[in-house]
Amino acid sequence: MASNNTAKTLKELHVPSRPLIIPNVWDISSLNALISLNSEENRPVKAVATASYAIAATLGIPDEQLSYDQNLEAIARLAPVAAQAGLPLSTDLQDGYGSRIAEAVTAAIKAGAVGANIEDTHPETGAFYSIEEQVARLKVALKAAADAGCPDFVLNARCDAFYPPSSAYLPQDSLMDEAVARGKAYLEAGATTVFFWGGSGRGLRDVEVSTLVEKLGGRVAVKASMRPDALSTAELAEKGVARISVGPSLHVIAMEAVKKAASELLAGGKLT
Length: 272
Fold this sequence. Notes:
- By secondary structure, the protein is an alpha/beta fold.
- The protein has eleven helices and nine strands.
- The protein has a nine-stranded parallel sheet.
């Protein structure tokens, strides 16, 4: 069972211009790799989060096919290891599994999680929940957290206004207006931060990050990008964001390393 004190610790790490850099894990081995970076003298890893895309990949299925049970089973395996290492755990609960959103949050807390990403689009279609509907859903999630003994549960409300294909449902000349309107509404509903992502191809433009930070008082979460022209975590901090995650990128990098090493062996080479 998650401790509300741990939730408070996680919430206090979300500081504009001094962002929480929160790496995403998918199994015990990836979590242990991050834990190994911490020592008594230095603890660069302050908290960890799950990545549903990477969890799904370990099961050989796409993200949108990851079931409620499969996701919660992975969270239940990771949470006690993170707790033993003194690391608050945030979770990727997709859209909260529709009408099961209260159940999903309660189950995550019982497993040991103290935060969650919850998306504002339907996973099957990419279509948006209306602002009013999503605000109501976020309030349901936070009430469930409070009822489960975790009133400081860290809600990182995801807004897909810039994310294709969901952004295709919106007028292209008003993406920022929609993002700001949703962001303000989600924060008012009780979210700690609002997470904006433009997808692996589009990403978020520098000016978009700056505008979102200005309009939302810095309570903005972003994903560190693998694009060559992407801003570094230090540069994103200078922009004023409060949280930086990596999504499934560590999993992607790890699998590319596996392919590279295996390819060299199969070509007559050696492990390097």
